[in-house]
Design a protein that fits this description.
This protein has two helices and six strands. The protein has 115 residues and is mainly β. Strands 1, 2, 3, 4, 5 and 6 form a six-stranded antiparallel beta sheet that branches. It is globular. The N and C termini lie far apart (60 Å).
Length: 115
C-alpha cells in the first residue's frame, strides 16, 4: 500500500472567509450537527449540540444566517450549504479549529455603505 507524502498545510489563526459545503449528523459520543466549511483548498468542521432553541448555539447560528425560530417549526440545516461565511480559527496543538460562535454569514458591502 502506497501513499504520496504531502506538504503540511498550516492554517493561520484568525479571521477567514469560506463556504459551507456540507452538513453532517454525528451521533457518538453525543448528538451533534457538524458544518463543514471549505476555504483555501481545505475543509474544517465545526460542531454544535443537536438541539434548536433560541438559546442554544445551534439556534443562534441559524438566526445569524437569517432563520426565524418559533416553537414547533422545522428547520433544515442543509439550507446553509453553499452559503458564504466568515469564521475565526485557533490552533489547539496541531489542529486548527473553528470557534463556534464566530461562524457568520459573509455580508457583502453594498456600494451605498462605501459612499
Amino acid at each position: 500500500m502506497e501513499r504520496i507524502v504531502e506538504e503540511v498545510k498550516k492554517i493561520v489563526d484568525g479571521l477567514h472567509e469560506g463556504i459551507i459545503v456540507e452538513v453532517k449528523e454525528r451521533k457518538l459520543p453525543y448528538q451533534y450537527i457538524d458544518f463543514v466549511v471549505g476555504f483555501e483548498g481545505l475543509q474544517l468542521k465545526v460542531g454544535y449540540a443537536d438541539k434548536v432553541t433560541a438559546e442554544t448555539k445551534l439556534g443562534k447560528l441559524l438566526v445569524r444566517f437569517g432563520e426565524s425560530l418559533s416553537v414547533g417549526k422545522k428547520v433544515n440545516m442543509e439550507n446553509l450549504i453553499g452559503r458564504r461565511c466568515t469564521f475565526m480559527t485557533v490552533t489547539d496543538g496541531q489542529y486548527a479549529n473553528i470557534l463556534p460562535d464566530t461562524l457568520k454569514p459573509l455580508v457583502a458591502v453594498s456600494e451605498e455603505q462605501v459612499n
